[in-house]
Amino acid sequence: MAYIHREAHRAERIGWLRAAVLGANDGTISVASLLIGVAAAGVPQGSILLTGVAGLVAGAMSMAAGEYVSVQSQSDTEEADIEREKKELETDPEHELEELTSIYIGRGLDGPLARLVAVSLMSKDALSAHVRDELGITETLRARPIQAAFASAISFIGGAIIPILAVLLAPSGRFVEVLSVTALVTLSVLGGTAAYAGGASVAKGALRVAFWGALAMVITAGVGRFFGAVV
Q: Is 214 exposed, middle or buried (0-12, 13-18, 19+ CB in 10 A)?
């Protein structure tokens, strides 16, 4: 019985990991900053919570819509390239064979072997061979707009719900302090987790995300305090 050696590479998960971390970070930073800005203006807890829920819904829909439009554009481009490749295979198969052969030569095969491989692959599924090796489109990496939109919205909600819960459970008059600490801890965990999964420094990843989150919250708190004092 042949032994099948399976290797797990970090690059295989970097796509979904990037989207998930981006959505969660955005949810935490956006909603926490929004709530801190409103709290710094001196509004009551009920208004702060209402603002947080509105920010969560608006942010999740914005993330979903933005991701859908972006990935759908990529999907449209892929479909157009595949359709063009299909027509070229119908009208000039010999040129396409030479094209595939040259790709394999560029990857290190000698001429006769490269042509043999190209002929063999094209005899089974010519379009799939060209889509994979010429266009670089694989089933694993195909653009999926609905999936991307749903994942972005869910990850945003997951990140945004934490600052809302922090305000809900915080003692009266301590919203800003509790919210700031909770958001920074959450961002540090997210940044460290993403760095660990990607093989990078956990400490650097955590500090990087926490720094930008803290900067956003400080600026928003300043704006909220300023306009609260003016009003």
A: middle
Structural domains of the chain, count: 1
Which residue segment(s) compose the domain that 192 sits in?
16-230
State both tokens at 60. Answer: 């999740």
Cβ-count burial 73-105 (b if 16+ within 10 Å, e if not): eebeebeebeeebeeebeeeeeebbebbbebbe
Copy the structure tokens of residue 95. Answer: 């040129």
Specify if 8 maps to a domain: no
- Give Cα 215 to chain centroid, integer Å: 22
pLDDT higher than 50, residue 1: no
Q: How confident is the model at residue 42 (pLDDT cuts 50, 70, 90)?
A: confident
Distance CA 231, CA 165 (A): 28
Tokens 């710094």: give the residue: 40
Question: What one-letter code names the amino acid at 106?
Answer: G
